[in-house]
Amino acid sequence: MFEAALLSRLAADTTLTGYLSTYGSAPAIFSEQAPEDVSINDTYITFYINKSDGGNPAVDSFIITLDVWAYTENRATGRAVVQRLDEVLDRAELMTSTRYHCIRLFRASGGPVLDTDPRSYHYNVQFEARAGRMAWAKNLSS
Fold it and tell me: Fewer Cβ in 10 A, N or C end of the chain?
């Protein structure tokens, strides 16, 4: 799909990455799940992309779910990450991919995720993505 374009967009924002822990030499942003050796005290993001049925042959629709994870003393940082995700991704356009020529994101929903550990901070943010299909556009021009 377009995970690389999303990851690139997030990692390029120095304000956002300044809030996050690092993993290796990169910002702690992971597709689908964090590695097992990520510390519970780290502040990090996991994300995944699900295709939804948009019903339009020219445009594919997706739901991008980003989870922000923080712990006790990092709660304020976790909230800052959520705010920055809104600023970076709402109404953003991602770089073109080989399959899509135009990928636009729109804030859909979000909220805290209840956890059995009251010291944890877990917040879920969702964006809708609409992507113009390259194959459909090429058929129009032939």
Answer: C
